[in-house]
């Protein structure tokens, strides 16, 4: 909304760097009458029940309905006609427009919705405009027009030159001024990030580099609703606040000094600040006064790399673990003469627009017989939500065993298949060629193995209108293996491909250095080990920086997504072995967490318990309690 309103580059805004004009727009938007509910389990009935509670209701936007069935999304598949009927009744009962977004080109699906008015947006190949067709249910097409897509600013513009103007300012003339709902963080977090903005944006100088980096990371974590990042920042920010930094003698310096002081001073309970966790675990979520944070798993990932300005700079001499320098050296020593950066002018064509964060294939699965709910939990003084699983009696007596894999991403670097050089268009393939690597468009294979999620994870829930998805080499190799072992009926069908000569050792020196450093630093613990993990994460994220102005030594989204996909494949494969051995998997999440139902405090024997790469930590959780994450 900020990008569309201010005309600022969306990717840059995600880093928290705003111009003075953009800051003014943000201030106006803070008081705009917008209410946003980003719950992942919203039903049409819930929307119809809660929307009328908003004062001066003027418009309801549902983003979005999903064509393909997804058991986790009520607004999908065969539920769409009923959902559409409920939304139409909401529009008539409240006398407001209800706009529901559906991503499909299938007219049969659209007709099922029986909408009063349908606006269809079509992008014609070779043209720079988007055609909008307006159709009324009884009258058919009543109008067409063209718009100019301005996706860098998250908006459309008029095509006529003399009418292309900035979007109108959002005002609240018909509604009381109201802040946008706060997703994550405390008031002290947000005030500190706002006060630091002149310094983190570069408009005002005078802070040490490390302080600037921490404060920029705070804003990025708040903007992206990254709860885990906020938690990790709490300790270093507290140390920063207690350090007594010398601030410039200016309005900006005095505000930042006050914000740091407030950050380091616990707020009294009467002020509504989050206090200690209540003794009773049954406190209803609705009774919590403090804002409840949601993890940003369903956020717009393709525009956020979790990096802040300065991360792309080499670590200083004497750094505990100079991960970026090691990664660069690892790539440079390859005899295949890798191409670490695709030129800017080439990124808008060829394979690069086809690559997305969805290609990680990460699982987000809960056993269909297990009930999952989100419950409030206090972590580092902030309220967040965590999963709570109800396991039916049919599973027998037992408890939950949480498996946490060590170093999923650096472990994947030991042998990730990718193409070090350019990707060439190799089109449809009769069979997968193991000497090649890249990206492949395939039909989603049918998966019916009981007690296991689809091998493609959440990627299987995001097909195009032909039921196809783009995947990287690790998933192709896994599907080939599953077919060979008889777990998939049909071989993989490759409809299109972009490939190059394969290599599995490009990152191996980086993996080896990472493994050796972990062995040493995990014993030391404390700040050295935390710094090691931070630098490791930054180096791997820099494989695909999203900020246009980033000076990262890399821009290879295929390398980044192949590495993440390799971690997902390994995670899924080990869990599959456990299920094949008779263990009961109740949830598989991201690339490092698996939950099993076990009769006693014994982890599945397909995992190795330990602190090294390839090993796991096991936590045992009593039924009815929430699933911990990180250092809960």
3D structure, described in words:
With 632 residues, the protein is α+β, with helices and mostly antiparallel strands. It folds into 4 domains: 2-163, P-loop containing nucleotide triphosphate hydrolases (Rossmann fold, 3-Layer(aba) Sandwich), CATH 3.40.50.300; 187-267, no CATH class; 302-352 and 413-512 and 515-555, no CATH class; 364-409 and 567-621, no CATH class. It is 30% helix and 17% strand. The chain is built from 16 helices and 17 strands. The protein has helices spanning 2-6, 10-13, 20-30, 44-50, 80-94, 107-113, 187-200, 209-223, 227-242, 251-263, 323-332, 408-412, 473-484, 508-524, 526-541, 557-580, and strands spanning 60-65, 98-102, 117-123, 130-136, 140-150, 155-158, 364-366, 371-379, 382-390, 399-405, 424-425, 436-443, 468-472, 494-501, 584-589, 593-598, 616-621. The strands form 5 sheets. It has a 5-stranded antiparallel sheet, covered by helices on one side. It has a 4-stranded antiparallel sheet with strand order 3-4-5-6, with no helix packed on it. Helix 4 (44-50) runs parallel beside helix 5, helix 7 (187-200) packs antiparallel against helix 10 (251-263) and helix 14 runs antiparallel to helix 15. The longest helix is centred in the C-terminal third of the chain and has 24 residues, at 557-580. It is globular. The model is unreliable at 161-182 and 267-300 (pLDDT under 50).
């Amino acid at each position: 909304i900020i990008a569309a309103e201010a005309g600022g580059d969306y990717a840059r805004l995600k880093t928290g760097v705003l111009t003075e004009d953009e800051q003014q727009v943000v201030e106006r938007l803070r008081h705009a009458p917008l209410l946003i509910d980003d719950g992942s389990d919203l039903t049409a009935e819930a929307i119809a029940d809660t929307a009328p509670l908003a004062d001066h209701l003027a418009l309801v936007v549902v983003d979005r309905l999903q064509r393909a069935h997804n058991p986790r999304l009520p607004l999908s598949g065969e539920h769409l006609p009923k959902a559409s009927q409920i939304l139409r009744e909401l529009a008539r009962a409240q006398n407001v427009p209800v706009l529901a977004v559906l991503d499909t080109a299938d007219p049969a699906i659209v007709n099922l919705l029986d909408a009063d008015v349908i606006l269809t947006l079509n992008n014609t190949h070779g043209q720079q405009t988007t055609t909008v067709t307006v159709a009324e249910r009884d009258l058919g097409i009543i109008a067409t027009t063209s718009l100019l897509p301005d996706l860098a600013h998250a908006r459309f513009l008029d095509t006529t030159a003399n009418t292309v103007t900035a979007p109108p300012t959002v005002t609240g003339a018909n509604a009381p001024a109201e802040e946008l709902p706060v997703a994550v963080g405390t008031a002290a977090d947000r005030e500190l990030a706002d006060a630091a903005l002149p310094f983190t944006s570069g408009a005002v100088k005078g802070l040490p580099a490390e302080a600037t980096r921490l404060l920029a990371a705070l804003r990025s974590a708040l903007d992206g609703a990254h709860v885990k990042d906020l938690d990790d920042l709490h300790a270093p920010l507290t140390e920063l606040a207690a350090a007594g930094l010398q601030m410039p003698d200016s309005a900006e310096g005095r505000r930042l000094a006050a914000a740091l002081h407030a950050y380091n001073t616990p707020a009294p309970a009467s002020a509504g600040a989050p206090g200690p966790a209540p003794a009773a675990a049954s406190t209803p979520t609705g009774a919590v006064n403090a804002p409840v944070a949601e993890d940003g798993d369903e956020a717009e990932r393709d525009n956020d790399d979790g990096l802040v300005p300065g991360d792309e700079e080499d670590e200083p001499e004497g750094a505990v673990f100079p991960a970026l320098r090691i990664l660069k050296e690892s790539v440079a020593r390859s005899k295949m003469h890798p191409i670490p950066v695709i030129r800017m002018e080439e990124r808008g064509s060829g394979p690069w627009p086809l690559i997305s964060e969805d290609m990680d294939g990460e699982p987000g699965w809960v056993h269909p017989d297990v009930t999952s709910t989100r419950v409030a939990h206090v972590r580092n003084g902030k309220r967040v939500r965590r999963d709570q699983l109800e396991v039916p009696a049919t599973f027998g007596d037992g408890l939950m065993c949480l498996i946490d894999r060590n170093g999923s991403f650096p472990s994947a670097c030991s042998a990730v298949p990718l193409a070090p050089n350019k990707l060439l268009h190799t089109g449809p393939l009769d069979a997968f060629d193991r000497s090649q690597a890249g990206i492949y468009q395939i039909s989603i294979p049918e998966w019916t193995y009981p007690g296991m999620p689809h091998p493609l994870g959440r990627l299987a829930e995001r097909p195009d209108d032909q039921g196809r998805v783009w995947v990287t080499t690790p998933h192709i190799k896994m599907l080939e293996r599953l077919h060979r072992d008889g777990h998939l009926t049909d071989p993989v069908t490759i409809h299109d491909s972009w490939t190059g000569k394969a290599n599995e050792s490009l990152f191996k020196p980086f993996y080896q250095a990472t493994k050796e450093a972990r062995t040493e630093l995990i014993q030391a613990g404390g700040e050295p080990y935390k710094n090691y993990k931070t630098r490791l994460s930054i180096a791997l994220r820099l494989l695909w920086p999203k900020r246009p102005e980033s000076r990262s030594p890399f821009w290879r989204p295929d390398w980044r997504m192949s590495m993440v996909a390799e971690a997902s494949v390994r995670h899924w494969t080990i869990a599959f072995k456990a299920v094949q051995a008779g263990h009961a998997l109740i949830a598989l999440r991201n690339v490092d967490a698996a939950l099993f139902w076990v009769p006693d405090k014994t982890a599945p024997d397909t995992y190795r318990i330990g602190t090294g790469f390839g090993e796991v930590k096991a936590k045992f959780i009593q039924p009815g309690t929430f699933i911990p994450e990180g250092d809960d």
